[in-house]
């Protein structure tokens, strides 16, 4: 799912490849951008302006659409992507718009056995952060167009990355269910939440552990897992690196 940056709309992508738009508070879809019978949708995202969005799928393709749902709804015709491109010869797992919709970074699997699982962008530092299937995190400096740092952040696949709006730190989540906070200045570990989400899955074909992480104001962290839980946490003072398994900082649990 992806929510529009300014309007009360959101997009959904399904296992059958369909992409639909809904309005918050309404059960009926507004329009269907892509019908079922296509490859499984792995990620959907709007650009920063909300006038375009992208869809990546399990066949390695990325498709870019104009957010012209009113035209599609009134004309009765299904909207078509203005660009479709196969960027990986296996699965495209994630993508991110770089500053504008004219530059896009993708994460996926091609011929090699490792591949990238997730990608995020820090616009103030112009850093691209990617996570891989073998637990490595890579940081790329887009100004210098080179890899700046690489380290093993987890013992299993990195499934989610989120960046603080101030770009003081970034967060990674893994298939084993751990969440870690890292400094965006020197890439050191600031804090660890062990076993935040159980290494099990309520659903088929979506993996295990942490599925998505988002940051909020006042050092809030929101995460959801394949175990069916959604949690909201507050980062401890100055991101203490001391792990206390008996301490429960969960402010909200669903």
TrEMBL record:
It holds the Pfam family WD40. WD repeats lie at residues 151-192. PROSITE patterns: WD_REPEATS_2, WD_REPEATS_REGION. GO terms for cellular component: RAVE complex. GO terms for biological process: vacuolar acidification. The keyword Repeat applies. It comes from the Eukaryota. Coiled coil: none annotated. Keywords: Repeat, WD repeat. PANTHER family: DMX-LIKE PROTEIN 1 (PTHR13950:SF12), RABCONNECTIN-RELATED (PTHR13950). This is Uncharacterized protein. It comes from Aquarana catesbeiana.
């Amino acid at each position: 799912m992806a929510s529009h940056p300014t309007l009360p709309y959101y997009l959904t992508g399904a296992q059958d490849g369909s992409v639909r738009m809904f309005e918050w508070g309404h059960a009926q879809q507004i329009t269907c951008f892509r019908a079922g019978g296509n490859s499984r949708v792995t990620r959907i995202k709007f650009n920063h302006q909300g006038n375009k969005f992208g869809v990546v799928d399990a066949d390695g393709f990325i498709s870019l659409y104009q957010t012209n749902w009113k035209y599609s709804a009134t004309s009765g015709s299904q909207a078509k992507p203005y660009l479709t491109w196969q960027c990986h010869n296996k699965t495209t797992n994630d993508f991110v718009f770089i500053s504008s919709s004219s530059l896009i970074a993708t994460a996926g699997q091609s011929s090699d056995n490792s591949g990238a699982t997730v990608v995020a962008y820090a616009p103030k530092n112009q850093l691209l952060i990617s996570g891989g299937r073998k637990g490595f995190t890579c940081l790329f400096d887009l100004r210098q167009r080179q890899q700046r740092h690489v380290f093993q952040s987890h013992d299993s696949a990195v499934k989610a990355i989120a960046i603080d709006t101030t770009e003081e730190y970034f967060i990674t989540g893994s298939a084993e269910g751990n969440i870690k906070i890292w400094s965006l200045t020197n890439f050191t570990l600031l804090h660890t939440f062990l076993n935040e989400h159980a290494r099990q899955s309520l659903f088929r074909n979506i993996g295990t552990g942490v599925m998505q992480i988002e940051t909020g104001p006042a050092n809030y962290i929101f995460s959801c897992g394949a175990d069916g839980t959604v949690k909201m946490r507050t980062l401890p003072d100055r991101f203490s690196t001391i792990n206390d398994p008996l301490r429960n900082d969960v402010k909200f649990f669903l």
